[in-house]
Amino acid sequence: MRLPRVDPLYAIGAIVTLIIIVIAGFVVGSNQSGRSGSVLDASSGGTSDLRHLVEGLGARTVIVQGDRFAPRESGATVLLMLGVTEFISDTDVSALRLYMQDGRTVVVATDLGLAESRLLSSFGASIAAVQRAGTYGTVSVAVAAAPAGLISFDQGASLKVSERWQPVVRLDGGVVGAMTREGRGTLIVVGSLAPFLNQFLGTADNGRFALSLAQSGFDSNRAVGFDEYHHGAHPSPDLFVLLQGTWLGRALLFAGATVFGYLLLCAGRTATRSRAAGSGASCTAGSRRRTGWIPRRHSSPCSRAWMSMIRRAGRKPARSTRHCHDACGM
Fold first, then answer.
1. Counting Cβ atoms within 10 Å, is residue 187 exposed (0-12), middle (13-18) or buried (19+)?
2. Torsions phi, psi of 129, nearest 5?
3. Alpha-carbon distance 208 to 218, whole Å?
């Protein structure tokens, strides 16, 4: 049995749709897992308790939000980016580089590393594998201010880092947290939100661990910043920026460009066939006029009578198709 031919346009559309659904599933699943990481979230998956703890110890806190992402203008000397739900763009990475080069600290905590992928890759890091729940030991001076020997994760991911990185949290030879220098500043990445969340802040040394990473914001005239910009605390971005700056937007642009190119190709072929068919039809009509053939439905009573007489005499009322084509020059 011969299978029906599949239109290439449908195949391309199906593949692009599948890619978009898979990526959206990861992002939506991450956002709806009950672990927002937002400082404005007082539930078990938020980080409002961490803010209260920092303020209770005498430090000032600020929320980074607004029309654009401008951490240098926030006044914060350490910026906590905890479970961001919006993709970090190239412009955001540049802003964070300048922020750290001024001697400031950025702390990134993530379970999946999707929204933060551009930032991580810019510094030679990526998510290596999903990490099992457990208690991990710290191995860095980054946690010396408030000694945190053990931290507890319920879920997270191990990191793959280049030589510029120094491990902060290790388990069985793998790196779960790491830090690197950028100018006079520091970038710290932790492969789990758990140590910062309301639900786990009091587990093991999680609270001390979070405070140690934010220690540079406790001096006078300094502040600890919480990134809410990448949790949606800003006006809706321009449509073109949204399409250009996110993976979903790029997938939609690719799908649109593919469909447009396919339609142009199909339109060119259709126009060629139409011109060829039109030339043949006009030639046939011209040959009929030159050979004296008159369509029956348009003939007069006199011509119909004449054709009837020819038929009764055993003659053909019109010339052959071959003769018609010869007269047309085909």
1. buried
2. -165, 160
3. 14
If you average pLDDT over each of 28-32, 128-132, 165-169, which comes out highest?
165-169
> What pLDDT digit, counting tens, does each position of 38-81 carry?
999 999 999 999 999 999 999 999 999 988 899 999 999 999 99
Which residue from 65, 114, 62, 63 is spatially nearest to 85, judged by alpha carbons? 114
Topology of domain 8-232+239-254 in CATH is Rossmann fold (3.40.50)
Cite the beta strand spans of the chain per DSSP E.
Answer: 60-64, 78-82, 105-109, 125-131, 134-138, 150-153, 156-161, 166-171, 174-182, 185-190, 223-227
List of long-range contacts for 247-253, beta carbons under 8 Å, 24+ apart: 247/23, 247/87, 248/20, 248/23, 248/24, 248/27, 251/16, 251/19, 251/20, 251/23, 252/20
Q: How far apart are CA 81 and CA 95, in angstroms?
A: 14
- Bridge partners of 109, per DSSP, are 82, 190
Joined together, the tokens standing for residue 47 give 């980080």
Q: Can you state the angle between helices 247-290 and 321-328, rounded to 10 degrees? A: 100
* Separation between Cα atoms, residue 123 and residue 106, nearest integer Å: 13
Three-class DSSP category at 238 = coil
Q: Considering the entire predicted model, what is its pTM?
A: 0.65
Pairwise CA distance, residues 138 & 149, whole Å: 6
Domain range annotation of the chain: 8-232+239-254, 287-330
CA-wise closest residue to 214 among 194, 191, 186: 186
Helix axes of 48-56 and 206-213: crossing angle, nearest 10 degrees: 70
